[in-house]
Amino acid sequence: MNMGTPRIGFMIGGAQKCGTTAFTEFLRLHPQARLPLGKEAHIFDAPDYDDAALPETIDARFAAHFAEPWQESLLYGDATPISLFLETAICRAARYNPALRWIILLRDPAERALSHYAMERARGNESLPLLPALLAEPWRLRRARGDLGWNSSLRNHSYRARGEYAAQLQRLLRHFPREQVLLLRSAD
């Protein structure tokens, strides 16, 4: 690790609307854990991510999300739920730190999808009623393939796809051994 910059040691991932915010706030209470000020640093899924970036460059970008300087005795993590959904983010994380540990939160997929839909409606990112939005999802996701932009349908309209946990976990386990992955089921 570089002195003065944190190195990400763990990721809190999982499907959006699965309790990652509550879990992150709970974990912040641990005296040796540090998480970004805004919870989601979006290090590995950022649209402007440089795939050629060295770990030191990624560390510097990550350090900007903390108010205090890096301390070697602390464990730093990120809580960006979409990291599990995007294989690109998983690959980037594996290149950056093959020893990275994952805490994955999962929720009933139907409840998760409804909560995601309600959030996107409230944000103004979804204009369709629920059923048409669900029917449009496959087309929207095909059209957005590879688009990691902040307004991409991969982020905003992946209601059912983000609940396909088996496929996401298979992708994760292709890059990280099972011993580095903790699965938790969240309930309301």
UniProtKB/TrEMBL annotation:
GO terms for molecular function: sulfotransferase activity. The keyword Transferase applies. Residues 11-185 form the Sulfotransferase domain. SUPFAM superfamilies: P-loop containing nucleoside triphosphate hydrolases. Keywords: Glycoprotein, Transferase. PANTHER family: BIFUNCTIONAL HEPARAN SULFATE N-DEACETYLASE_N-SULFOTRANSFERASE (PTHR10605:SF56), HEPARAN SULFATE SULFOTRANSFERASE (PTHR10605). This is Heparan sulfate glucosamine 3-O-sulfotransferase 6.
